[in-house]
Amino acid sequence: MTRILYKCLAQMHPPAFRRQFAAEMLWIFDEMAASAGAIYLCWDCFVSLARQWLLRAGAWKLAVAVAGACVQVTVGGLVWMMFWHAPNSSGARGDVALNDLMRIILWLVGALVLMVVAASLWVNGFMARRRIR
To answer: Strand, coil or helix: what is 66?
Structure first.
């Protein structure tokens, strides 16, 4: 049963990696399952799967963008609630003007675009330096 799970995990790797290493991974699993523990090997294959898709395939850029968007929406919403949407003199929250809402959305989108561009430039520079060595 664990060999089937391991084989499925190995088949979910990116095509180039799978062609080069899938047979060797299964051979290692067959040799080491009894001594190292099949569950540990399945976990290792799962970690390898995540690493290959996120780092090697470039999906990490999407993950960074989504994480940055979540942080910005959360922080931006909290800042907006604390400063711009302050209670009026009676203690009740006031109505939000459409102009204020549009300004906040534009600031958040602009900051998100800058963050993604900066991360992409940094990674491209890092990869270029890595290829030179």
So the answer is: helix
